[in-house]
Automatic annotation (TrEMBL):
InterPro entries: Murein_DD/LD_carboxypeptidase (IPR052062), NLP_P60_dom (IPR000064), Papain-like_cys_pep_sf (IPR038765). GO terms for biological process: proteolysis. Belongs to the peptidase C40 family. This is Hydrolase.
Length: 171
């Protein structure tokens, strides 16, 4: 009986030591994000925002699901997101629909865009049907129909093909 008790105690010690070795091995691994990954580039774009209120606004709305006609945290569409961002961060009064918002900008080329400028897309035909807000380094924030409020890369072919207009709000 004493031998069995010692064996169990020895087994407990071995299991304990193995757990410590396993956990310390996991803790010592360094996770590195490659500097050329899209996630690290998006994080870099966010970290280089000049406007801290813009940074807070984006992080506060990040991941909010898309809802056509939505204008709150239970769901928002692209023009509603641009509308609220422009109002809250820059004090601009935009129309509610993206095609009407497109009429309120002084047009610029992609290389001339500044933080807060609007970018318009046409995914479904000739007229504007989507809007986003330029950040920097060819990144923009928008309410995606499939992913909600996200930061995306303008260099992606889907956006390159659909972009129709960009510019700053006419004061």
């Amino acid at each position: 009986m004493v031998a069995l008790k010692r064996c169990r105690e020895g087994l407990k010690v071995i299991v304990f030591l193995l757990a410590i070795v396993f956990l310390s091995a996991c803790g010592s691994r360094k996770l590195a994000v490659k500097s050329n990954t899209s996630a690290s580039k998006m994080a870099d774009a966010m970290s280089h925002l000049k406007s801290k209120p813009l940074y807070r606004f984006i992080t506060d709305w990040s991941g909010v699901k898309y809802r056509l006609g939505g204008l709150d945290k239970s769901g928002i569409d692209c023009s509603g997101f641009a509308y609220l961002l422009q109002k809250d961060i820059y004090g601009n009064s935009l129309p509610r629909r993206s095609r009407d918002q497109a009429e309120t900008v002084n047009e610029k080329s992609l290389g001339q865009l500044k933080e807060g400028d609007l970018i318009f897309f046409s995914f479904g035909g000739a007229s504007v049907d989507h809007v986003g807000v330029y950040l920097n380094g060819n990144y923009f924030v928008h309410a995606s129909t499939t992913r909600g409020v996200v930061v995306d890369d303008l260099n992606m072919p889907v956006y390159q093909k659909a972009m129709v207009k960009a510019g700053s709000f006419k004061n």
